[in-house]
Design brief:
single chain, mainly alpha, MetI-like fold, globular
């Protein structure tokens, strides 16, 4: 399916200005926004840019009385790697680079094939091997993993494992087999009906009590199980909404040409249902990505928590605003990238006559 032609920047700018000046109400709102920016932007720029300290120590920051970006610079690698051993940081750095490369490759539709899925499986195994060690690398306990590294691990593996489970739960909830429908409905409602933080507590504290003697599961593995189930339950309802939105004629047409149930779902129904729910899926993904910050309650230091921990350094006390702004910027950029890509997918899959 051919993508819609790009709209020139000048055309979009004229359309934007026309919308801002279309009628007295829009003109009033536009003037109000301009007045608000004129009031708030100059002092912010003065603090964040013109009087900011970009390098040096805390004393230099306090003397300048501006933003202390030197704190962010000093704690940047700690926010990325956490307590991972310094001499082994090349391993999480390689893991994050591999993750970024696979994410970029996955945005290219021409690469969508079973080979890309196979590449993801190989990359996932390689990333775990790099972080955990073994087979020639020194083992590193998961309690030392942290920062952006642990955020990437939880978000990527949780969504990658939860998405296919969500599709199965959505199909099961619409199944004509009563026991299957009841089971899938119970799983979805039970998991959706409790906060993620309670699932994390259950996985970290209660689950080991139900394991046989001598059997242990790493804490990070237990957290990933809880996060995967939470992801699957929420995504299952999004997928079910897409299945219910499909016209009855699509099901009947698939039956008419003799497709089996699985062929009908795989070739006809699911591709369309997943396409029309792209906005809802990405919205759910963004929410789940930000929910990774909750793992701090069970003692796992994600990206945001490592920045908060860095604020406790006695030599760098008093710069929480810079830390939180930096964290907000990183989360915004990652979420905005997901949002923009979802809009591209919507445009690519939209029928030509509807563009």
């Amino acid at each position: 399916m051919a993508a819609a032609p790009a709209i020139p920047l000048a055309t979009r700018a004229r359309a934007f200005l026309g919308a801002c000046l279309d009628g007295p109400v829009n003109i009033a709102i536009t003037l109000g926004c301009i007045a608000l920016l004129a009031w708030a932007l100059p002092p912010f720029l003065d603090w964040a840019v013109f009087r900011a300290t970009w390098s040096g120590n805390a004393q230099a920051c306090r003397a300048a009385e501006g933003a202390c970006w030197a704190f962010v610079r000093e704690k940047f690698w700690f926010s990325v790697f956490g307590l991972y051993p310094y001499e082994e940081r090349w391993r999480p750095a390689t893991m994050l680079s591999l993750l970024a490369a696979m994410a970029v490759a996955s945005t290219q539709r021409r690469l969508w094939s079973r080979w890309l899925l196979l590449a993801w499986l190989v990359a996932a195994a390689a990333m775990l091997w790099l972080l955990a060690g073994g087979f020639g690398l020194a083992p590193v306990a998961t309690r030392l993993w942290g920062g952006l590294t642990i955020t990437g691990v939880i978000a990527v593996y949780g969504v990658a494992l939860g998405y296919p489970l969500a599709v199965l739960l959505a199909l099961g909830r619409r199944s004509e087999m009563t026991l299957v429908r009841w089971f899938c409905t119970a799983v979805i409602e039970c998991v959706r009906g409790v906060p993620l933080i309670s699932l994390l507590f259950m996985a970290a504290i209660m689950l080991p009590l139900f394991l046989p003697d001598g059997v242990t599961l790493d804490r990070l593995v237990r957290i990933l199980v809880a996060y995967t189930l939470f992801t699957a339950a929420y995504m299952a309802e999004v997928v079910r909404g897409g299945l219910q939105a499909m016209p009855r004629g699509q099901y009947e047409a698939a039956d008419a040409i003799g497709l089996t149930w699985w062929q009908k779902m795989r070739l006809v129904v699911l591709p369309q249902a997943l396409t029309i729910t792209i906005p809802a899926q990405v919205n759910t993904f963004i929410g789940l990505f930000k929910d990774t910050t909750l793992v701090v309650v069970v003692g796992i230091f994600d990206f945001f928590t490592t920045l908060r921990a860095a604020l406790g350094d006695p030599q760098w006390l008093g710069f929480p605003t810079e830390a939180y702004l930096f964290a907000a910027a990183v989360y915004f950029l990652l979420c905005f990238a997901m949002s923009r890509y979802s809009q591209k997918l919507e445009n690519d899959f939209r029928p030509a006559g509807a563009r």
